[in-house]
Amino acid sequence: MKNNHLFLGLLLPLFVACGNAGLKESTAVQFTAKNPLDAPRKDALVVIGAGELKEKHPSLDLASVKFTAGDAVPFQANDLDGDGTTDEFALLLDFAAGEEKNIRIEPLAAGESLPDFKKRTQAEISHKINGTWKDREYEGGEFKNVDYLRVPPEHTDHSWFIRYEGPGWESDLVGYRFYLDWRNATDIFGKKTTDMVLQNVGLDGFDSYHEPAPWGMDVLKVGKSLGIGALGTWLNGKALRVETTDSLACRIVLNGPVESLVRTNYFGWKAGDVTTDVTSEMSIHGGSRLTRHDVTLSQPMPNLCTGIVKDANGRLFQNENADWGYIATWGKQSLAGDQLGMAVLYRKGDLIEKTEDEFSHVVVLSPIENRLTYYFLAAWEQEPGGIQTEEAFKAYLDGLLVEMNSPVTAGL
After folding, report:
1. Cβ distance 234 to 364 under 8 Å?
2. Residue 236, SS3 per DSSP
3. CA angle at residue 265 from 264 to 270, to 5 degrees?
4. What is the widest separation between alpha-carbon atoms in the chain?
5. Could you read off the pLDDT of 265-305 as tens digits, one per residue?
6. Quick check: is 35 in a domain?
7. Given 62, 87, 111, which residue is the final one in a domain?
């Protein structure tokens, strides 16, 4: 399940409690959301828990509502556990400096349909069907998108079975993927368009996405590193990715206009003397470069870690502000030979140490009650309106820290 034990306004979901007053069938519920910063915020993700809303306003039909703040507010209903009912509503809101917005939850009128919100995120996984396994390679067949995949035991790296080798997720700014095999490292799709593109990537079954295309390209050489933000554990002076497992399963939980989420279960991850099951949830929302990574362990594993691939052309820098910090690199480290910035953002209270090994810049983190949340992001200079300089990238990251430490607030 998506972890919501942190409340960070723009970046982490903000749950809104609604009033206890009775609700007639045609009466709207109203709440306020406020930006406490003396600066504007764009595409803030606000999440409303459906259970509490239904409990306090039982006559409101959650399957037939809209959200307005003068104009229609882009939103989606999220079913996180697959039981066919809404668990939460995710909204995207823009704020002026210091602005307080009045948000209304209104029943749809008879015959009224929801607005067709622009799709600003996507998540997918696609594998081949109608072919055959020959040893560890899948021959023939064609790709089909699915919502769930239990990885077959034959599958390994370069099996040609999964399109671009794992699940992908994107916003209108950037895309990501990770290798759904023993490598379990995260890669970056740089985008030259704000349109959704993953559905067209890797259809030839090979790695043509490493070459420039009108939509963009894969911009990162991962190798033996953590790539960007991959999960590992710090063991014997090295970052060990989630390599040795009993089995893997991956589900596309959300694939909506506002937010998308990929959930992966690693059964029997063995690292040193510890074996644990891992639930990994990677999510992204519209207008954001950030991937949020929520990790849940079945058994304690100390010294979880994540990080950024080392590149001779990437300059390392870092900063901390109140509760949050980051490590980042910037330089001509993309596969296109141009400027690429990467960062991992962590909660300072989780930090054990910042270190490195041969392949990665590393942050070692301590889970709290077997749970950990961190973020990672990439910024490629060829994005539409993309960040062009190291100074601008640093300013962007420092601005994110300010926002994370000053969350959007909500109340009646």
Report:
1. yes
2. coil
3. 125
4. 64
5. 999 999 999 999 999 999 999 999 999 999 999 999 989 99
6. yes
7. 111
